[in-house]
Design brief:
21 helices, alpha/beta, single chain, about 500 residues, 3-stranded mixed β-sheet, 5-stranded parallel β-sheet, 13 strands
Length: about 500
């Protein structure tokens, strides 16, 4: 099922307009690079060693990238326990779909995936929602309890980069017990979030991806000239970002990255000896400099020189803010492509869409709302009867008022309160009758409820919150193959993928 992204709840409006052809703030299309500058030899060696450590033989792809003999595609994501939410998998599926499309045209392409190990959002990294019996069950580490285990090196108020933090045993235990799994090597005792995430991807995708850790020292050193240039032009960059924010606002768009103090955008963090990030206005030594959401794309595109960047809707909007900086700093911008969007459902769940003629705009409605739409005649009759009865009763109460009030004016308040109670109970009676009517078909109710719980659990779109590992544990390579086959890169639709 192909559904317009305009029906996807909360989709970024800037990106929708951009997809429709509005390229005032961000070029919609761009030519692939014709070769690239020489790549730092130390970085090439580091990437090869890094990927071998995670179980990936990426030497040939890294060499093809470094020599300019392949189109370079890149996406990235914050680290998340057990692979994070489904949209992480959708990004990777988009990369691999594009890689195969290039191959069909006789062009070699390599797919890089950036591991945002410097991110400090512990709550997001150490949380997982998993599909269980068609429902979304929250499994989350209690931060205070977990920090008891790490208190020697971390305290609750520190903004630590999560990549080097060990995966909590409490979270591992919940996952293994939920699926009755033997303990895999990517969850071995003491493993950190970065290595766990990378080794899981290696076990799923083999050698199809080249992974790169955002905190790779050689990457930071290669980016030092850029860092220095950003530091020297700090004030001009702040002015350019504020000017672009005003331009976006005038066009009706909100900026994705807002300055935390309302005035100064964060460009860099300093990593201290414990991996804790502190905002700074100028870069420090390369290995201790951590990029912000604004400077991360600049580092990526200056050092790695990708031909195509694949991002989610918010990341596309980031680039709209950054275009003036690319021009100011002389960094070549890649073609920006929107990741494919896909939601997944077991076949028995997906069949409800066709069986009950569910329209695209109904996919994210509640089960009761969907079922009410399937009983228009009966629902209408109940509402008409209830309204008629209410009107008749109000007419009789008015007659009582006309007779009684001249005799006892104190009755006015009592009559008004009674009217309020009666209207409330009429409404409740009508609601209960409608729910009873739509629930009379238990099989249909169960199917539509499961569909709503699968695609829109707890009023959140599935791919934003549900971990893909739950589906992977049941479907294995069938899941990834279906996503790669059906996902549509850089498209204004999303797919409902039946597993």
């Amino acid at each position: 099922m192909r559904v317009p992204l305009s029906q996807y709840p909360g989709f970024n409006r800037f990106t929708l307009d951009w997809l429709a052809g509005d390229d005032r703030f961000l070029p919609r299309r761009g030519a692939d690079r014709q070769g690239r500058r020489a790549v730092d030899a130390e970085l090439v060696a580091a990437l090869k060693a890094q990927n071998r450590q995670w179980g990936i033989d990426a030497d040939a792809d890294i060499d093809a990238w470094a020599t300019g003999d392949a189109v370079m595609l890149i996406a990235g994501q914050q680290l998340g326990f057990a692979g994070g939410p489904l949209y992480t998998l959708a990004k990777i599926a988009t990369l691999l779909k594009m890689k195969r499309q290039y191959a069909s045209e006789g062009k070699k392409a390599v797919a890089f995936f950036w591991l945002a190990s410097e991110d400090h959002d512990w709550d997001e990294a150490a949380a997982l929602s998993l599909p269980v019996a068609g429902l979304c069950v929250q499994k989350q580490v209690n931060r205070q309890v977990d920090l008891v285990c790490m208190r020697a090196i971390r305290s609750a108020d520190q903004r630590a980069a999560v990549g080097s933090l060990p995966v909590p045993e409490s979270l591992i235990g919940q996952l293994l017990s939920l699926y009755d799994l033997p303990r895999p090597s990517w969850l071995r005792p003491g493993i950190n979030f970065r290595d766990s995430f990378a080794e899981l991807l290696a076990s799923v995708f083999g050698n199809e991806l080249v992974l790169i850790d955002a905190l790779t020292p050689e990457l930071r050193r290669a980016g030092l000239p850029l860092f220095q240039q950003i530091g020297e032009k700090h004030d001009h960059i702040q002015d350019a970002l504020h000017d672009r924010a005003k331009e976006l606002a005038a066009a009706g768009y909100a900026q994705q990255i807002v300055p935390p103090d309302g005035e100064h955008y964060t460009l860099f963090f300093e990593l201290d000896a414990h991996g804790v990030r502190h905002p700074v206005t100028r870069p420090v030594e390369a290995e201790r400099t951590s990029t912000s959401a604004l400077t991360r794309p600049l580092l990526q595109d200056q050092v790695l020189q990708p031909d195509v960047f694949v991002g989610g809707p918010s990341e596309v909007a980031y680039y709209a803010q950054l275009v003036p900086l690319y021009e100011m700093l002389g960094v070549a911008m890649p073609r920006v492509a929107l990741r494919g969007h896909a939601l997944v459902a077991p076949k028995r769940v997906a069949r409800a869409i066709e069986r009950y003629d569910i329209e695209p705009h109904e996919l994210f409605a509640s089960a009761d709302a969907l079922l009410i739409e399937r009983e228009p005649e009966g629902v209408s009759q109940i509402r008409d009867i209830a309204e008629s009865a209410r009107a008749n009763l109000m007419q009789h109460i008015e007659q009582i008022s006309q007779l009684a009030l001249p005799a006892d004016h104190s009755l006015a308040g009592s009559i008004q309160r009674s009217i309020g109670h009666l209207e409330y109970h009429f409404n409740k009676l009508s609601e209960r009758a409608i729910k009873g009517l739509v629930r009379k078909d238990r099989e249909r109710l169960a199917a539509v409820r499961e569909l709503a719980a699968t695609l829109h659990p707890d009023a959140h779109v599935q791919d934003r919150v549900v971990g893909w590992f739950g589906y992977w544990s049941e479907y294995g390579q069938h899941l990834t193959q279906c996503l790669i086959d059906e996902i549509e890169p850089d498209s204004d639709v999303f797919r409902i993928v039946s597993l």
